[in-house]
Design brief:
- The protein is of the alpha/beta class.
- The protein contains 16 helices and 22 strands.
- Helix 2 packs across helix 6 and helix 4 runs parallel beside helix 5.
- The strands form six sheets. The protein has a seven-stranded mixed β-sheet, sandwiched between helices. Strands 9-8-7-10-11-21 form a six-stranded mixed β-sheet, with helices on both faces.
- About 1% of the residues have low confidence.
- The chain has two domains: 275 residues, Aldehyde Dehydrogenase, Chain A, domain 1; 209 residues, Aldehyde Dehydrogenase, Chain A, domain 2.
- GO terms for molecular function: oxidoreductase activity, acting on the aldehyde or oxo group of donors, NAD or NADP as acceptor.
- It comes from Streptomyces globosus.
- Belongs to the aldehyde dehydrogenase family.
- This is Aldehyde dehydrogenase.
């Protein structure tokens, strides 16, 4: 789109329907696979963030009163644009996030388009619900009457959407699309590691005809950008995906003015493998921690709690699974495990692996930095370009180890054996500050569901790591506040109003 970027490819901010030169200049977005420069991202100033929030506030009245059919048409057209540009935008997502090409195409850009399509339908979902009438006797409040009541869902206002780096399409689309469908306006602040895709999303919405100020995108590496957005008096709600530590800081700021919050925070998913489990199915599910986004996903089953009777066999199967995963450049056909997002994060993951060894865990697989050659495959050496971490399996872990208790956010699985029955397994699974997604594997469906209901997690997968995309998503404890996905996202981005009348 004209004006979206300069002749040198540097991106501009999107504020009030205009592409604006960033006050803080630009910084380089680096491909985590080979450390090349993908593009130049804009660095907003706090004043520009406030300008974007003010633009969203000014646009709110008109957008919130727009016919839902028109909101649906705009979201549908945005999905059409994303589908049309799927190939180049998938390549961009691959380059800036490090996801393998197939994942970037299907799970990032593809899911992003699907979410705009889903919430085009969502814009047409009923927002009013009649409640049973209530008969009141005469009294101090007046004569006897029959009181009718209506529950009405109203948009919250201006929503600050602060997104994660592990999926630069699905995550922001999952915030922006339902927020717009409900009649809110948004200011999006993408993760600094891979923000370029989010500016493409803004292009799609602009082409689709979204009115000026309804969607704004600011960004930057400085923490001051996010801080200014969260603190803005124009912002009514903050939707954040990221670490629990950052979420806690955001919540403190939101609490000062009682801003609404939707928080998807950290996870340390427990995978309970009972003695009657299908071990091959369990390994296939747990193994996604090694491969899917290179473990950079809060829903990963990273903490395996397995009955002693099948412990050795499960550990052996997991080691074999990890050994057959191809580590390589994400653009190369056959690559399963790509890089993590940055050198700093690679170092963090490696530090956790070493910490686990010092704590007494047995390193079964991984633990050495893989080298990826120019053709994408492993060179066998210890040096190479890109931020790669080998799939790592730690066995003989105990519940008090930091590598078991803290979110590593990388391709690292820790295995904890247990000797007793369901009570011990449940106690170990629930012994965590987190409670996003957990999992149970058992051939006995009744037993698996019995255990699932006892787990303190926002979601539980029974013999699967798959997700139903209409089911509520969110966490217990320090894994978050609120629920989204499906119609639950529409509820999350709305306030409930009661209208009562005398009949």
């Amino acid at each position: 789109m004209s004006g979206a970027q300069r002749g040198d490819g540097a991106r501009r901010l999107f504020i009030g329907g205009e592409w604006v030169e960033p006050a803080g200049g630009h910084y380089e977005v680096v491909d985590p696979a080979d450390e090349s420069v993908v593009g130049l991202a804009p660095e907003a100033s706090p004043a520009q963030v406030e300008e974007a929030a003010a633009a969203a506030a000014a646009a709110f009245e008109g957008w919130s009163r727009t016919d839902p059919q028109e909101r649906a048409r705009i979201l549908d057209r945005a999905a059409d644009v994303i589908r049309r540009e799927s190939e180049p935008w998938s390549e961009l997502a691959r380059a800036e996030s490090g996801a393998p090409t197939a994942v970037a195409r299907a799970m990032q850009v593809g899911v992003g388009a699907a979410r705009f399509r889903r919430y085009a339908r969502g814009a047409l979902e009923p927002v009013e619900r009649g409640l049973p009438p209530q008969v009141t006797a005469a009294g101090p409040m007046g004569r006897s009457a029959v009181l009718g009541a209506l529950e009405v869902r109203q948009p919250v206002g201006v929503v600050a959407c602060i997104t994660s780096y592990n999926n630069p399409w699905a995550n922001p689309a999952g915030k922006v699309a339902p927020a717009l469908a409900m009649g809110n306006t948004v200011v999006v602040k993408p993760a600094p590691q891979d923000p370029l895709s989010v500016f493409r999303m803004a292009e799609a919405l602009a082409e689709a005809g979204v009115p000026a100020g309804v969607v704004n995108v600011v960004g930057g590496q400085s923490a001051a950008v996010g801080e200014a957005l969260v603190a803005s008096g124009h912002v009514d709600m903050v939707s954040f995906t990221g670490s629990t530590a950052v979420g806690q800081r955001i919540a403190e700021v939101c609490g000062r003015t009682m801003k609404r919050q939707l928080m998807e925070l950290g996870g340390k998913g427990a995978a309970v493998v009972l003695d009657d489990a299908d071990l091959d199915a369990a390994v296939a599910g747990i193994g996604t921690t090694f491969s899917f986004y290179s473990g950079q996903i809060c829903t990963a089953p990273t903490r395996v709690i397995v009955h002693r009777s099948v412990y050795g066999e499960l550990v052996g199967k997991l080691a074999g699974y990890a050994a057959h995963l191809r580590i390589g450049h994400p653009a190369e056909r056959g690559t399963v495990v790509g890089p993590v997002i940055s050198a700093a994060h690679r170092d963090r993951v490696e530090a956790y692996v070493e910490l686990g060894r010092k704590e007494g865990a047995r390193l079964v697989h991984g633990g050495q930095r893989p080298a990826v050659g120019p053709g994408g495959g492993r060179t066998g050496g210890s040096r190479g370009r890109g931020f790669y971490v080998a799939p790592t399996l730690l066995a003989d872990c105990t519940a008090d180890m930091r590598v078991v208790r803290e979110e590593v956010f990388g391709p690292v699985v820790s295995v904890v054996p247990f000797d007793g029955g369901e009570d011990e397994a449940v106690a170990l699974a629930n012994d965590s500050d987190y409670g996003l997604l957990s999992y149970v594997w058992s051939r006995d469906a009744e037993r698996a569901f019995r255990v699932a209901r006892r787990l303190r997690a926002g979601g539980v997968g029974v013999n699967t790591v798959g997700r139903n995309m209409e089911a509520p998503f969110g966490g217990f404890k320090r894994s978050g506040v609120g629920r989204d996905v499906g119609s639950y996202a529409l509820h999350a981005y709305s306030e409930v109003q009661a209208i009562v009348w005398a009949g």
